[in-house]
């Protein structure tokens, strides 16, 4: 077949995603802020859809945040990743799936650097052997967890109890999709659809009944910026970038935001809270914000799981307006209860952002 | 140290990020940091391309190299497949090695970053961890996260995590044998040496500024002088 023009360009950005047998490595940020998303990734992929997904308790951070905050040398970051590869080899897997976008970018950067500079790979092998008496094989495939859900999106749609459709009007929900920068900006060919037309989240939204919104600052960074958020003195950078996106998306009246990065859902959620508290401005309807979700949370809602099992109670922007639009039932009384209905008090409520 | 350009060329990121740069300025046009800070990655690339030791030394001691957010948007748009962000990473790495980072306000922030992040990595196996995430340092995390932090065990258990326990799962306790391997990796690859260098240069700077280490840590984490932002009057 001879590909021409855009058809050929598009074919360059079609990513091969294995269907089964995954070695799963977790995300530092998501474990802290969205642990239920990781729990439901495992539940959906392994328990519901029957794929082989393995996790070892011996894996650690990839060091990506420390690396991109410029606090460790490149060879330290590479050797930590080489150790993860060693654990994968030990477990007998060849397909690596990362929960984190920073990790995904880190793995891609390291493998590309080793491809261009094999002497560096040899040095890292030596480092790992000297430090840990370990050897490793490079993975055959490196994917992000959103790639896996993208791959399985139609199987999820086939089991859908709710769709991304307004139950009152029958219209598709209007969805902003936000892709983490390190998913595809460093190495566009590693992401579904590349950097210009990423399709990994669009594919999920369309498969589950929603309508993706195009808006001017769609590809702008959420503003994490590593040191620009982590150091308190720099956080204006982080908020300004999110604010720019909110202002840009506001006229398109989004019902929700879906993200595939650990930091992005946190920043797009929390900076709405800060803008509301400091400027008195909210971007949703009736004093609410625009609810922000991980792709696992959206998949979970589509599949009919309880919103509080999915962890939506630890968002600062209230998810309830979106649940009402989708027709997802929820019990407000159980929102902040612990296991076995244990009373663990409730968070206080913001003054400028409507929450429950 | 002289011949800083040659020193930079030893860094793979520098070579990959710069080698066919034509100084077109596309990186500046797309850069989120350039919109916010008084920052122009094109000028930085221009400076290093001139290869002058004095100019590069000035750069390594300046705030300028610390404005980038490493989002790598520049890599997507560069018509020559370079990356200003990669060059920045190499410049920061050299600034840290030589102790030049203590000469700028933004550079001095390397001290709290290094302590907190690598403390988490080496003691817990995570870059970020709720047990070291103080709400007073992060009021933007909102009342909902203050509640999470005040009820960590209960909330994480409710959300399907395995907080502080053995076995797999989110927020699990990383076994000591794995933390020992991380430490050995740091020792072998120059990570430990880097931590010690940043500590040494930072404590010397703290002394010079008349601060205790704790005062310096807090100051560098929170202080922001006028003059960094595009929105400020020149």
Largest sheet of chain B: none
The helix content of chain B, as a percent range, equals 55-70%
Low-confidence runs of at least 5 consecutive residues of chain B: none
Sequence of strands across the biggest β-sheet of chain A: 2-1-3-4
What does this structure look like?
The complex is a heterodimer of chains A (356) and B (234). Chain A is an alpha/beta fold and 356 residues long. Chain A has 16 helices and 8 strands. In chain A, strands 2-1-3-4 form a 4-stranded parallel beta sheet. Chain A has a 4-stranded parallel beta sheet with strand order 6-5-7-8, sandwiched between helices. The longest helix of chain A is centred in the N-terminal third of the chain and has 18 residues, at 74-91. The termini of chain A are far apart. With 234 residues, chain B is an all-alpha fold. Chain B contains 15 helices and no strands. In chain B, helix 5 (41-50) crosses helix 8. The longest helix of chain B has 18 residues, at 191-208. The radius of gyration of chain B is 20 Å and the shape is globular. The relative contact order of chain B is 0.11. Classes of the chains: A alpha/beta (356), B mainly alpha (234). Chains A and B meet through helix 2, helix 3, helix 4, helix 5 and helix 6 of A and helix 2, helix 4, helix 7, helix 8 and helix 10 of B.
Give me some keywords for this one.
heterodimer; A: 356 residues; alpha/beta; Glutathione S-transferase Yfyf (Class Pi), Chain A, domain 2; Rossmann fold; four-stranded parallel β-sheet; 16 helices; 8 strands; 8% strand; globular; B: 234 residues; mainly alpha; 15 helices; 59% helix; 0% strand
Topology:
The complex is a heterodimer of chains A (356) and B (234).
Chain A: H1 5-12, E1 22-25, H2 28-33, H3 35-48, E2 53-54, H4 64-68, H5 74-91, E3 95-98, H6 101-116, H7 118-132, E4 141-144, H8 145-151, H9 153-158, E5 174-178, H10 181-184, H11 200-207, E6 211-212, H12 227-230, H13 235-249, E7 256-259, H14 263-279, E8 292-294, H15 295-303, H16 320-326
Parallel strand pairs in A: 1-2, 1-3, 3-4, 5-6, 5-7, 7-8
Helix pairs in contact in A: 3-15, 5-7, 6-7, 8-11, 13-14
Chain B: H1 4-9, H2 12-18, H3 26-30, H4 32-36, H5 41-50, H6 53-60, H7 73-77, H8 84-98, H9 105-108, H10 110-124, H11 142-150, H12 152-158, H13 176-189, H14 191-208, H15 213-222
Helix pairs in contact in B: 2-8, 5-8, 10-13, 10-14, 10-15
């Amino acid at each position: 077949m001879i590909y021409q023009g855009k058809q050929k360009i598009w074919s360059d950005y079609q990513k091969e995603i294995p269907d089964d047998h995954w070695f799963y490595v977790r995300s530092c940020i998501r474990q802290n802020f969205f642990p239920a998303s990781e729990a439901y990734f495992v539940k959906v992929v392994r328990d519901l859809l029957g794929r082989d997904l393995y996790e070892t308790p011996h894996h650690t951070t990839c060091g990506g945040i420390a690396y991109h905050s410029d606090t460790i040398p490149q060879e330290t970051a590479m050797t930590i990743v080489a150790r993860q590869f060693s654990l994968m080899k030990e477990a007998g897997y060849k397909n690596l799936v990362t929960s984190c976008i920073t990790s995904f970018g880190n793995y891609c950067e390291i493998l590309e650097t080793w491809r261009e500079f094999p002497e560096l790979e040899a040095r890292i092998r030596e480092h790992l052997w000297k430090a840990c008496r370990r050897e490793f094989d490079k993975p055959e495939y490196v994917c992000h967890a959103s790639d896996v859900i993208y791959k399985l999106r139609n199987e999820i749609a086939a089991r859908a109890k709710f769709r991304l459709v307004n139950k009152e009007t029958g219209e598709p929900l209007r969805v902003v999709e936000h892709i983490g920068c390190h998913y595809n900006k460093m190495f566009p060919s590693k992401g579904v659809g590349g950097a210009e037309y990423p399709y990994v989240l669009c594919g999920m939204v369309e498969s589950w009944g929603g309508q993706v919104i195009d808006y001017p600052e769609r590809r702008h960074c959420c503003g994490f910026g590593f040191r620009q958020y982590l150091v308190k003195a720099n956080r204006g950078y982080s908020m300004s970038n999110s604010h720019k996106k909110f202002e840009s998306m506001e006229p398109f009246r989004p019902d929700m935001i879906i993200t595939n990065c650990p930091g992005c859902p946190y920043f797009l959620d929390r900076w709405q809270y800060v803008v509301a508290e400091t400027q008195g401005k909210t971007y949703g309807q009736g004093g609410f914000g625009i609810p922000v979700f991980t792709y696992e949370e959206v998949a979970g809602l589509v599949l009919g799981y309880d919103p509080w099992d999915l962890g939506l109670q630890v968002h600062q922007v209230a998810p309830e307006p979106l649940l009402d639009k989708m027709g997802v039932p929820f019990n407000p009384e159980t929102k902040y209860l612990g296991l076995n209905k244990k009373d663990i008090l409730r968070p206080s409520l913001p003054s400028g952002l409507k929450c429950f | 140290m002289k011949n800083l350009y040659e020193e930079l060329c030893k860094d793979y990121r520098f070579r990959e990020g710069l080698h066919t740069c034509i100084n077109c300025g596309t990186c500046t046009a797309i850069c989120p940091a350039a919109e916010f800070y008084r920052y122009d990655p094109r000028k930085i690339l221009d400076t290093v391309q001139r290869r002058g030791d004095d100019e590069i030394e000035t750069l390594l001691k300046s705030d300028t190299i610390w404005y980038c957010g490493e989002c790598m948007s520049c890599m997507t748009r560069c018509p020559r497949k370079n990356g200003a962000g990669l060059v920045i990473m190499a410049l920061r790495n050299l600034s840290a090695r030589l102790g030049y980072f203590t000469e700028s306000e933004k550079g001095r922030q390397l001290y709290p970053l290094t302590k907190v992040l690598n403390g988490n990595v080496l003691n817990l196996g995570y870059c970020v961890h709720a047990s070291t995430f103080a709400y007073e340092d992060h009021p933007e995390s909102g009342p909902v996260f203050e509640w999470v932090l005040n009820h960590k065990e209960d909330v994480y258990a409710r959300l399907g995590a395995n907080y502080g326990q053995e076995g797999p799962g989110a927020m699990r306790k990383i076994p000591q044998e794995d933390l020992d391997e991380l430490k050995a990796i740091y020792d072998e690859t120059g990570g430990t040496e880097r931590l010690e260098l940043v500590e040494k240069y930072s404590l010397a700077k703290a002394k010079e500024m008349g601060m205790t280490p704790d005062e310096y840590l807090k100051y560098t984490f929170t202080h922001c002088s006028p003059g960094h932002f595009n929105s400020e009057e020149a």
